[in-house]
Amino acid sequence: MAEVIWGLATSHVPSIGAAMDREKTQDDNWKPLFDGYQPAREWLAEHKPDVAIVIYNDHANGIDLDIVPTFGIGTAERYPVADEGFGQRPVPEVVGHPELSLHLLENLVDDGFDLTVFQELEVDHGLTVPLSVWTPEPGDAWPCPVVPLLVNVIQYPQPTAARCYALGKALGRAIRNFPEDITVGVLGTGGMSHQLAGARAGFINSDFDRRFLAEIQSDPAKLAALSREDYVRLAGSEGIEMIMWLIMRGALDDDITRVHDTYFVAASNTAAALALFENKADSRALQPA
Ligand code: DHB
Ligand code: FE
Q1: Where are the domains of the chain?
Q2: For ligand 1, what atom is nearest to the CA of residue 12?
Q3: pLDDT tens digits, residue range 130-174?
Q4: Cα separation of 193 and 108, whole Å?
Q5: From the CB of 271, is ligand 1 less than 6 Å away?
Q6: Is 152 helix (H, G, I), strand (E, B) or coil?
C-alpha cells in the first residue's frame, strides 16, 4: 500500500525559476522569497518520497490551446522540459512513473474522473518551477520520479473548486490502493492571487491569500464551496490556479500538520506562497484502504 507522506503547495511563477537559473536568488529583491523557502527545503531533503505527484497547469506550452482537457494525467517514461520561448530551463528532464500513472488513471476513471491521457508531454514552468522550489540544486536528476496531473485553469469553464477537492479525495484513495509499499509526496501548484492581463492586471488580494493559506489546512471544504467566479473576483483571473491546491489537500488526511509556510508579494505580478504539510501517521492508520 502506498502512503502520502506530505503535501506541498507552491506558486509556480516563471521568474522564480529564472531567478534561480540566473543565480539572482541573493539579490535584494529576491532574497526574502528564497529565505522563506529554506526551512521547507531542509525538511523536504530529509523526507524524500519514492514518487511525487505534481498537480499543475500547462500554459499553452506543452498543450495547444485548441484542445484543453479539464483534467489529464501523464503516463510517460520521461517528460522533456518545454522551451517557453527563451530556450529550455537548465534543469533535468522529468522522469515519470508509468506504473503509478496507469494505476491512478484506472482508479480515477473507475471513481468517475475521466482523465485525458498524455502519453507524451513537455512540461512547462507550472511543473518545473515547483520542482525547483523543492530542490534548488537537483544535479543530474530530480529527487524522484514524477506523475503529472493536469488541470485546466486557463480557459473558461475551469473545473469548480468542489470538483477539484473531490478529485483530490479520489486521488488519495487511488494512491492508498497502489499495491506497492511506496511513499508519495503530492504537490499542488499555482497562485496565489494574481491577474496578468486586462483592467485588473497586477491585482493582488493579500487578505484572501492569508485566509486561503489558513483554511487550506483547517477548513478546505469552505474553500471548495467557493464558485469559479468567487475565485476570479477574489484572487484574479490567474489566481484561480489556487483550486489546484485543493486537489493536493483532498489527497491528504483530514488532520495534517503544518511544517512551514511563507508568503511573499510580489514575484513578477504575483503573490507567491509556499505551504508544506505533513500527513499525520496516526490518522493515516485509521484511513480505509
Ligand atoms: C506568471 C505566470 C504564471 O503562470 C503564474 O502563475 C504567475 C505569474 C508571469 O508570467 O508572471
Ligand atoms: Fe501559472
Answers
A1: 3-286
A2: 6
A3: 999 999 999 999 999 999 999 999 999 999 999 999 999 999 999
A4: 29
A5: no
A6: coil
